Structure to design on (202 residues):
């Protein structure tokens, strides 16, 4: 059986995982740093405010650069596909998504200032084969699997000022953040030399 050495690098700056509380971590709104440096998301695109699941889903998966502003509580009850060159952010501390995000084969995405309450069998946020992603000021809880997973050779990402927690010990997995891939040696070629992720102030 072939054996692969998975080289992953995690930069941790004062990282503390908090499992209680709904508020975002108290701090200034930072600029991106760490491995996701250079990520611009939707850049200077005109902001589009969304208040329904249909509008959020349509804008998140659309082609081109977009800045998507989430207002109120949006109930998707599923994983929302996010594509390249997107900024998805909450308008204020009450902005909430019931569901999660799925990012596959994409690049240059910012997701910030959101409460993400995960329901069903989806991850909170899952990225696969994706690079240049900044997760900032997120409050993610109650996934039945992982809250924020970086897999399948993804990398050059930063996770900053986020909270990961579970409201009940009865949930099956209670996993915070997977870095690497399931599947043992079969995932070695995808992960080797990748998985560069900065975690700070979580």
């Amino acid at each position: 059986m072939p054996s692969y050495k998975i080289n992953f690098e995690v930069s941790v700056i004062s990282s503390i995982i908090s499992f209680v509380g709904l508020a975002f971590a108290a701090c200034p709104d930072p600029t991106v740093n760490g491995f996701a440096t250079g990520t611009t998301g939707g850049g200077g695109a005109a902001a589009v405010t969304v208040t329904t699941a249909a509008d959020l889903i349509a804008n998140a998966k659309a082609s081109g650069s977009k800045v998507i502003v989430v207002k109120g509580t949006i109930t998707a009850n599923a994983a929302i596909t996010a594509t390249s060159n997107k900024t998805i952010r909450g308008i204020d501390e009450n902005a909430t998504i019931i569901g999660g995000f799925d990012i596959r084969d994409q690049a240059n995405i910012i997701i910030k200032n959101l409460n993400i309450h995960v329901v069903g069998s989806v991850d909170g946020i899952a990225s696969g084969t994706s690079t240049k992603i900044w997760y900032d000021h997120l409050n993610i809880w109650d996934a039945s699997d992982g809250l924020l997973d970086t897999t399948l050779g993804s990398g050059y990402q930063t996770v900053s000022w986020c909270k990961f927690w579970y409201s009940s010990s009865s949930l099956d997995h209670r996993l915070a953040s997977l870095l690497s891939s399931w599947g043992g040696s079969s995932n070695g070629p995808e992960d080797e030399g990748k998985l560069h992720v900065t975690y700070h102030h979580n």
Q: What stands out?
A: The chain has a mean pLDDT of 84.
